Amino acid sequence: GAGVSQSPSNKVTEKGKDVELRCDPISGHTALYWYRQSLGQGLEFLIYFQGNSAPDKSGLPSDRFSAERTGGSVSTLTIQRTQQEDSAVYLCASSLGRMNTEAFFGQGTRLTVV
Amino acid sequence: AQTVTQSQPEMSVQEAETVTLSCTYDTSESNYYLFWYKQPPSRQMILVIRQEAYKQQNATENRFSVNFQKAAKSFSLKISDSQLGDTAMYFCAFVTQGGSEKLVFGKGTKLTVNP
């Protein structure tokens, strides 16, 4: 695609439910990142993929959070048993995977847990 | 720990004037890249400028330039001839060669350009 695509753009869910957030990176980009942005805060790193493997998942806040990437392309971030503190914008980015290359971001998924 | 500090949560500037956003970072690595990203109200993050740590010359991109002081671990962004479209959140970030190549971001500076 032309850019990084994330879906849904907005999601409202009830506390305790599971949610899946999807990221379609730019074709050919081997690196994929997930970040969380809470209101008025910076970007909190969650997980990084190189191809289908995740060399760094140190940012996942708890075992309720998991992510996978298939075919070196689409990634899904799953949050189980959502809590109100999970409410945030979840941003996905992709890049060619070399350190100095630009990371292209999607427009994010705004998750609201009520 | 690798951290980025942006000490100015909010700034404002008059249209056509110059503004400087500050950023300091902390890493024990010697080879890394520094970035400034812009996030307008649309939420779309856009790369503004990048700097390689091994280059002494400061990067410039049109009205945007940086003042990179490696010894001080400082990486400020100067915006010249500010335009209304520059109103956005600005994030400083870096990535190191030793490690997972994750971008580490600061908390951002909210810049408002006033007419």
- Main β-sheet description of chain B: 6 strands, mixed
Tell me the distance between the termini of chain B: 41 Å
Q: Helix share of residues of chain A?
A: under 10%
Question: Which term fits the overall shape of chain B?
Answer: globular
- Give the total of beta strands of chain A: 11
Largest interface: A-B, 24 and 27 residues
Q: Please report which band the strand proportion of chain B falls in: under 5%, 5-15%, 15-25%, 25-35%, 35-45% or over 45%.
A: over 45%
Tertiary shape of chain A? globular
How many strands appear in the DSSP assignment of chain B? 12
Structural class of chain A: mainly beta
Describe the structure using short key phrases:
A: 114 residues, mainly beta, four-stranded antiparallel sheet, B: 115 residues, 12 strands
Overview of the structural elements:
- By secondary structure, chain A is mostly beta strands.
- Helix content of chain A is 0%, strand content 50%.
- Chain A has no helices and eleven strands.
- In chain A, strands 2, 4, 5, 6, 9, 10 and 11 form a seven-stranded mixed beta sheet that branches. Chain A has a four-stranded antiparallel beta sheet with strand order 1-3-8-7, with no helix packed on it.
- Chain A is globular.
- Chain B is an all-beta fold.
- In chain B, a hairpin with a 2-residue loop joins strand 7 and strand 8.
- The termini of chain B are far apart.
- The chains are: A mainly beta (114), B mainly beta (115).
